[in-house]
Amino acid sequence: MDSVIFLVLRRMRLPLLVLLCLYSVVAVGMTLIPGPLDADGQLQYVDFFHAFYFVSYMGSTIGFGEIPFAFSPAQRLWVTISIYLTVVAWLYAIGSLLNLLQDEALRRTIKEIRFTRTVRRMREPFNLICGYGATSRALVRALEERSMRAVVIEREQQVIDSLLLENYPIDVPTLCADSRKPTYLIEGGLSNSQCRSVIAITNDDQVNLQIAITSKLLNPELPVVCRVDNQEAADNMVSFGTDYVLNPFEVFAAGLHTTLRCPHLHLLREWFMGRSLGLKDTPLRPPRKGLWILCGYGRFGKAIYQRLRKEEGIRIIIIEAEPEATGYPGVEYVIGHGTDASTLAEAHIEDAVGLVAGTDDDINNLSIVMTAHEICRKTARKVFVVLRQNLMDNEIIFQAAEAEVVMQGNQTIADHIRVLLTTPMLVDFMRLAKRRGDEWAQELVNKIHQLDSKELLEDSPTIWETPIDEKDCPHLYRALSLHQLVRLEDLRRNPRNRLELMPAMPLLLHRGTENIMLPVQDLPLQMGDKILWCGTASTRWWMGWLFYDEFVLSYILTGDVSPRSSVWTWLEKRYPGLKKYRYGAEHEGAD
Question: Do 436-590 and 263-407 fall under one CATH topology?
Fold first, then answer.
């Protein structure tokens, strides 16, 4: 605010001085010029108060009459001159003020003040996101759909303008500034008690590194998530204690490796991340033996190569146009882009079972796939295609391409960060599930199918966490503190009919240092437990009801619907027979 006042006073100094001097001269002149004679034959003079009053309304409105008496010709001449002088002075002052309001420095300062005030007044948890690109756009939308607030700092004003046009359900405070500067990070809520994480996902590794270092120095307890493309920058981030360092190519390569070894686990991951539209989807089954052709040996290609080379029975041929720049691979390679049939033929496309189009050019990737499909049609072969998409604007044409897997780096990172922020237990579950193998994952898929819900046929399963603590489950926590027996199955009971179990299943129970996969339904709960659930969105809503309503929890655990008002409490004590009329016969039979 001090900066705004200083800027206004500096820019308006000369116009204000012109108005002040001119009004002073005009008012003093009015007091010095004699007026008409009075009844006693004496000259009349205007006192300073009436002169100032007359000049004030004359300069802005021109015309309320002559006061305190009719003016003499000399006074009217002076007033005529004064009218034109004050009008010109006001036009000059108003023009200067309009120019000031259009000044970029002032507007930027006012926006910064409003942004800082908005963030300071936020009373709900939020995440500070630095950089607003395709990844941030997908992440903010995913968070807003779950009613999780986000604060965005972006360097380019044009990008900020595009954010303001987004139809987010909740307002997103934005600031156009360089997020590397600690001042702007603090204004964005780095020191705010409601800030839950700092997410640095700009397109510059050094900027993300500086944000991570600043965040860890100013608020060491706050989780920091960074996107990185360079391994050296990733190692530097880890050395400064960055909680999550995400490389989109490594994340996708790990997912593709999971698909190779555990197709059903890949299907579970697609369900749990909301990328599948229902339980009707079948798992992908990439070929685990045979020739794979990898087009492009950049950062993405190297990440895929490191995963495929670990699989026995897979032979890899790499197509790279500039091996002297990317580095020569340790396996058989062909120099070229892969967009022409001769290069693919040299790489033995007619014998290939898998193709990865992973260059940094979307048009080249599409051309590679189309050329490969044309060759394979002639030989009646089917090739498993992994297609890399670099620009989100090309999503429509990539959907039309015949590819089993499309790699969208921005969406991959956005989904991963969303899981880390909303359901971090899902990361632990997927890591533990990968050790169990594909047969175990297939059994879990069958169990989810057995939940028997029409909602799951139309949409992917919903994943949520239930921490048994005093903040999130106050009444359940109190019941456990009083040594009341609560089993895991009790949380699935329908608040409208406790004999009915809602479509949900526990995936993981975290108790102290112990992780229990697919815990049994009759497992007694303890204070401090954390449960990862899989089910429908409606089940999640109903389950949240019993956590915050002690009457619903009492009904779930005991079958007794306690009266909520003192009047019904007194009536039931005096007339016990009223209970069946209030609860209904079905509750009486259930008890």
Answer: no
Q: How many CA atoms lie within 13 A of 245 on its CB side?
A: 21
Are 88 and 26 contacting, i.e. CB atoms less than 8 angstroms apart?
Answer: no
Non-local CB neighbours of 586 within 8 Å, separated by 6+ positions: 497
pLDDT per position as a tens digit, 290-330: 999 999 999 899 999 999 988 888 999 999 998 888 888 88
Is residue 284 within 8 A of residue 268, CB to CB? The reply is: no
**Cross-strand bridge partners of residue 37:** 43
Measured CA angle at 279 (ends 538, 488), to 5 deg: 50
C-alpha–C-alpha distance, residues 50 and 193, integer Å: 58
Domain extents in the chain? 2-101, 107-246, 263-407, 436-590
Contacts 24+ apart (CB under 8 A), 398-401: 398/362, 398/366, 401/366, 401/369, 401/370
Nearest to 294 by CA among 269, 266, 331: 331
Q: State the pLDDT at residue 564.
A: 61
Which residue's entry shows tokens 């950049």?
Answer: 298
Which two structure tokens, joined as six digits, stand for 207? 């900027």
Tokens 């050296």 found at? 232
The DSSP symbol for 181 reads: S
Measure the CA–CA gap between 566 and 586, rounded to whole angstroms: 24
Beta strands at 493-494 and 497-501: parallel, antiparallel or unpaired: antiparallel
Contact of 59 with 23, CB cutoff 8 Å: yes
Strands (E) across 267-392 are located at: 290-295, 314-320, 333-335, 352-357, 384-389
Is the domain defined by 436-590 classed in CATH 3.30.200.210?
A: no
8 Å CB contact between 69 and 55? no
β-strand 514-517 against 504-511: which pairing, if any? antiparallel
Confidence of residue 574 (pLDDT cuts 50, 70, 90): low
The residue type at 299: R
Positive or negative torsion for Cα 338, 341, 347, 349: positive
Could you give phi then psi for residue 525, rounded to 5 degrees? Answer: -85, 155
Fill in the DSSP letter of residue 45. -
- 107-246 sits in which CATH class? alpha beta
What does 436-478 look like in DSSP terms, one character per residue?
H-HHHHHHHHHHHHTT--HHHHHSPPEEEEEE-STTTSHHHHH
Place of tokens 């991959």: 412
CATH architecture label of 263-407: 3-Layer(aba) Sandwich (3.40)
User: Residue 389 has which token pair?
Assistant: 């998409």
Query: Quick one: what percent of the chain has pLDDT higher than 70?
Result: 92
Q: Measured in Å, how far apart are the chain's first and last C-alpha atoms?
A: 66
Say if residue 226 is exposed, middle or buried (CB neighbours under 10 Å; 0-12, 13-18, 19+): buried
Domain covering 2-101: architecture: Orthogonal Bundle (1.10)
